[in-house]
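Sharing a chain and its predicted structure for anyone who wants a worked example. Both blocks are below, sequence first, tokens second.
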Amino acid sequence: MEYSAVNKIWVLLGAALVFFMQAGFAMVETGFTRAKNAGNIIMKNLMDFAIGTPLFWFTGFGIMFGGAGAFFGTFDFFVQGDYSSVLPSGVPLPAFLIFQTVFCATAATIVSGAMAERTKFISYCIYSAVISAVVYPISGHWIWGGGWLAQLGFHDFAGSTAVHMCGGVAALVGAKILGPRIGKYTKDGKPNAILGHSLTLGALGVFILWFCWFGFNGCSTVSMEGDAIFSAGNIFVTTNLSAATATVAVMIITWIRYKKPDISMTLNGSLAGLVAITAGCDQVDAFGAFFIGLIAAFVVVFGIEFIDKVCKIDDPVGAIGVHGFCGATGTILVGIFSTQGGLLYGGGFHYLGIQLLGVVSVIVWVGITMILVFQLIKHTIGLRASVEEETKGLDVTEHNLSSSYADFMPMVMTGKTDTMKSVSVEKAIPVETVKSEKTFTDAPISKVVVVFNQARFIDLKNALYSLGITGMTITQVMGCGTQKGHVNYYRGIQIEEAALLPKLKLEVVVSKVPVPSVIETVRNVLYTGNIGDGKIFVYHVENVVKVRTGEEGYDALQGD
């Protein structure tokens, strides 16, 4: 074979971009789950690629691309056979191998999100290995390896079904068998919202995935010569347009349904548009991409709600709705919007029927095999972490990691350090003790606590300093008053126990400054006449001791 440098570079570029999707999935899953499991999520996304790579080399590639069988390739251990008949023009075998390897890893990592926060790490490694070694390669052979679906004319250009729906169906089976997280559903089956700890990470992951999807879809031409030059440009346009349309549509849908545009669901909308367009990005025009993205938006919103509220399946990141439902939908829509024989372009129902048959066949294959795999794991080494492990978090119980954010946590000093040595009063900062007219015994000491809106902090601080307050303590808190906070939604679920608003708590201890003056000043600054202006609490304080000088009571509250 005569190799083409441009085709080889194009395929390797695609492999690099699709590999980087692992980082995107890791960020999305980490951000949409709780901090106590962040390290476990990262570890799983690392290991499914690391485990899947040698296994796909060992058996998967041969099963997927070896031989001419209708249902199964061949066992070609370590890719030793002749694949010249399936290699893209001008692309050497090693380049094609790594390109297909990263696609295999993507299918395996999709499952992680739906089963996050409650799956034993060893169990995850095992079922991820099975997906990479057997499940994905067999259905992949049907579609891309010359199998029976390919012979019928089934079209899945870059993997809406072969990759995404495969992972989505496995995620559905796994999440159902695994069961919901502790506290996800009430006794009467009503879902509770379990908020992810960082929408920032989730958004970063979506941007990474969107960027890498240009390689996922665009580089699947495996060529940049001849007709592929135009096709690649069209694929970039359709991929981007579908994603953007779905994003806008989901924002509008959630704005109407939840009264506010839901951020995490809108991020899922971006991925939904990308997944749906992947099957037909090469055969649809811009108009087709627009409508595929629009349809995907409705599918992902109502699909996630259906899984969560009706099926009672706990999917923390929406993987089933995004990859399973939208993967199937996008593949079927090729039979409608394809300019090369789609229903709307005079092709009749034949093409649409083939697309439906392919989707159903892969669902049955992946569903049955993964039920067997998950049940086998469940009844041997166990699939789910214990109640204690899930409650504490998988970071500490599975990986002995106290926190994935250790450097961002407050550090408590234990023991003496060179910078914190005790000194005698004589060597301390000079203090001139001034006796006040009042003494500790006759000067009342009061603590005033104010809970108020964060926006008023600067004005309140300045007003209290002007009043003569010598010190204050500020704490960021969450709370609600008699109104029980506002009704909030997260991914379509009303947040019950978390209907708390961010507030500031200010604490001052006064003696010289009259308490009524403090109260009057606070009210004047905070008052707007609206619910939520804040509350003031006044306590009697028995004594105050200034550590550095030993002064007590009234004297301890005065400045130097």
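Comments welcome. Residues 227-258 form the longest helix (32 residues).
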